[in-house]
Structures are given as C-alpha cells and as structure tokens.
Design goal:
The protein has a single domain, classed as Arc Repressor Mutant, subunit A (Orthogonal Bundle). The protein contains four helices and three strands, in the order ααβββαα. By secondary structure, the chain is mainly α. 27% of the residues are buried. Helix 1 packs across helix 4. It has a three-stranded mixed beta sheet with strand order 1-3-2, covered by helices on one side. The longest helix is centred in the C-terminal third of the chain and has 25 residues. The two termini are 19 Å apart. A hairpin with a 4-residue loop joins strand 2 and strand 3. Bound molecules: zinc ion. The site of zinc ion has 4 residues, from helix 3 and helix 4.
Length: 133
C-alpha cells in the first residue's frame, strides 16, 4: 500500500486533535517511518518514546511483536512489520500502559487502541477519494 497525502507536518502538537494525530501516526507508519510515529505518540501522551527493534525475544518467538517493559522496547519479529500500523500501535499501547503505571497487559484494549487510529485514518482516506473523484 502506497499512501501519500502530503499532510503538512509542523511538529507543533498543541491543539492537535485526536483524529489528526491518528491520521499522522498511521500515515507515518505506512511510509516506513515508525520512529517518527512513536515520537508523535509519545509526545502526545507525555511519555518517553519506546525503542524499536526488529528481532525476537525468548519465550515470545511466535508472536508478531512484543513489548518488553524493562527495556522500554518494542520488538517486531519481521522488518516488514515496521510499516504495519496495527502491530506498532498495539505494542505502543502496552508501552503507554506500562509507562503510566498499570502493569496489566490488556490485549483487547491494545487492539482497540490500534483500531481507533486505523479507523480514523480509513475515514480520512475515504473522504479524500470522494472529493478527488
Ligand atoms: Zn499485546
């Protein structure tokens, strides 16, 4: 999937609405710039950005990705997942929850978190198609 909406990025997050954040973040991940997306997310939520690495972790070799709280690092099992918004956002949610003190790993909530971003992005995508024929 190749997406280029030319959204101007000023780096100014003040007054950024959730929907704008969601679109920016998903777009950056699809463009293969997951570190930028994680910085945007971390600034927005006021947490330190997690590290991101391609590799597998003992006892978690069969998962697509995982988050290690003690390293504050997201691991993706394949480099192609660096441009997968669902996986990155799901793992960021674990980082966010851990950073804010809640240790419980809520898989369903992490999925919902990721889907909120992707749904906003898809709505935005659809609206572009309607206005540009
Ligand atoms: Zn998870």
């Amino acid at each position: 999937m190749r997406v280029n909406f030319n959204i101007p990025f000023t780096g100014d997050l003040t007054g950024m609405h959730d929907v704008e954040l969601h679109i920016q973040v998903v777009q950056r991940i699809l463009e293969g710039k997951p570190e930028q997306a994680l910085r945007l997310l971390s600034n927005y939520y006021g947490v330190v950005a997690p590290d991101l690495r391609v590799g597998t972790v003992k006892r978690h070799r069969r998962v697509l990705g995982c988050y290690l709280p003690n390293e504050e690092r997201i691991y993706l099992s394949k480099s192609e997942y660096l441009s997968n918004p669902f996986i990155i956002l799901h793992e960021f949610y674990h980082h966010l929850r851990t950073s804010s003190g809640k240790k419980r790993q809520a898989e369903k909530r992490a999925d919902q978190f990721a889907n909120t971003f992707i749904e906003d992005f898809n709505r935005f995508h659809d609206s572009l198609h309607m206005t540009s024929d």
